[in-house]
């Protein structure tokens, strides 16, 4: 059996799969501070630990160094710690989970599977920022994120449409607390909304997404903590002082002015990306919505279709993502 761990800042998602990708067990454990204690709850839920042949870990940022599933050693973990500043909402928690899992399961191989790996072959025109080439040569480029989700959505869309992945041209929309959109042409991502860090792109729950860098320079001169603005107190949190999307929707339905404005901004950013990627791809087999917002309550997607008729001209699919299965597929390939 393959144990998959997807650890965030407040929860541990786990899945247990056989080598045919059949789900044996799956669940979520919330935690306050102590990942190690919560991980023991996962092990109790699984029961017979002798069944575990390998462990797969989601790691968000692999930078240029890690573009394939990588067996974890102490040296690799130390190297990954240096990347934490590139994904401060994710990598530190991923690494704490790795430490706990290796402590309690020391006799099986542990693999890191990276969110950025799916985008490692983006065309240079999508990777590069229009700044000095020397920065690009030092690894300053757009990496993309939610790759495990976008890859899973692509694979499942191919099944639904009865097409080979390498003939599939789609736009995938991962809408959750974090959000990103990817253009996929013939089974390969050619552009994605997130960049050097997971801060770029769409408006999100606590992140503003695309924002004028000159504005950030201006705010920094007035003493504003820029990292706080772009990581913890932007997006819906900054505008509405909440990270509860259900509350946002309830207030939109009540026609509360600030909620309506924030929601309209959220939809507008989404449709701008879909429109621009449609132009780049020329023909699109489907626009696929996923994530807790994209494939959960239909209010958001229905609102997009109602407000922007362009969306209705596309074939629309909603597919719940499963990053744990996506990780399992990559780990199974390593065994």
How would you portray this structure in words?
The mean pLDDT is 93. It is built from 15 helices and eleven strands. A six-stranded mixed β-sheet has the order 3-2-1-4-6-5, sandwiched between helices. Helices cover 43% and strands 18% of the residues. It is of the alpha/beta class. The protein folds into two domains: 2-114, 2-Layer Sandwich (Nucleotidyltransferase, domain 5), CATH 3.30.420; 161-318, 2-Layer Sandwich (Nucleotidyltransferase, domain 5).
Quick summary:
By secondary structure, the chain is α/β, with parallel strands linked by helices. It has helices spanning 35-46, 74-81, 91-104, 124-127, 133-137, 147-161, 213-221, 226-232, 235-240, 245-253, 257-281, 291-294, 299-307, 309-312, 323-334; strands spanning 2-7, 11-17, 23-30, 54-59, 70-71, 110-114, 170-175, 179-185, 188-192, 286-290, 316-318.
What CATH calls the topology of the largest domain is Nucleotidyltransferase, domain 5
Question: What is the mean pLDDT?
Answer: 93
Structural class by SSE content: alpha/beta
Task: Sketch the topology as an H/E string, one letter per element.
Answer: EEEHEEHHEHHHEEEHHHHHEHHHEH
Which regions contain 5 or more consecutive residues with pLDDT less than 50?
A: none
Overall form: globular
Number of helices: 15
How many E-type strands? 11
Distance between the termini: 11 Å
Strand content: 15-25%
Q: Please identify which CATH superfamily of the largest domain we are dealing with.
A: ATPase, nucleotide binding domain
**Biggest sheet character:** 6 strands, mixed
Q: What portion of residues is helical?
A: 40-55%
Number of domains: 2
Radius of gyration: 20 Å
Which architecture of the largest domain per CATH? 2-Layer Sandwich
Q: Which strand order spans the largest sheet, edge to edge or round the barrel?
A: 3-2-1-4-6-5
CATH level-1 class of the largest domain: Alpha Beta
């Amino acid at each position: 059996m393959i144990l998959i761990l997807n650890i965030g800042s407040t929860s541990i998602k786990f899945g247990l799969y056989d080598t045919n990708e059949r789900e044996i067990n799956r669940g979520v454990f919330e935690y306050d501070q102590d990942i190690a204690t919560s991980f023991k709850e996962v092990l109790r839920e699984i029961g017979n630990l002798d069944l575990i042949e390998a462990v797969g870990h989601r790691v968000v940022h692999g930078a240029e160094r890690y573009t394939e599933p990588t067996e974890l050693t102490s040296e690799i973990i130390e190297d990954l710690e240096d990347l934490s500043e590139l994904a401060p909402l994710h990598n530190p928690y991923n690494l704490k989970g790795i430490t706990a899992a290796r402590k309690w399961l020391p006799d099986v191989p542990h693999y890191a599977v990276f969110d950025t790996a799916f985008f490692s072959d983006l065309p240079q025109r999508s990777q590069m920022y229009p700044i000095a080439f020397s920065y690009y040569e030092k690894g300053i480029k757009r990496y993309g994120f939610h790759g495990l989700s976008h890859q899973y959505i692509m694979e499942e869309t191919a099944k639904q449409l009865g097409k080979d992945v390498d003939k599939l041209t789609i736009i995938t929309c991962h809408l959750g607390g974090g959000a990103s959109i990817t253009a996929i042409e013939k089974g390969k991502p050619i552009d994605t909304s997130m960049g050097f860090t997971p801060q770029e792109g769409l408006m999100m729950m606590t992140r503003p997404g695309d924002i004028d860098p000159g504005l950030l320079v201006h705010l920094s001169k007035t003493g504003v903590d820029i990292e706080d603005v772009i990581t913890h107190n932007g997006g819906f949190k900054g505008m509405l002082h909440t990270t509860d999307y259900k509350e946002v929707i309830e207030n939109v339905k009540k026609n509360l002015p600030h909620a309506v404005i924030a929601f309209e901004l959220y939809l507008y950013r989404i449709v701008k990306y879909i429109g621009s990627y449609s132009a780049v791809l020329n023909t699109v087999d489907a626009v696929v919505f996923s994530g807790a917002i994209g494939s959960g309550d239909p209010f958001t997607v229905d609102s997009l279709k109602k407000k922007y008729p362009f969306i209705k001209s596309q074939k629309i699919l909603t597919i719940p993502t499963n990053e744990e299965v996506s990780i399992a597929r990559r780990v199974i390939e390593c065994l």
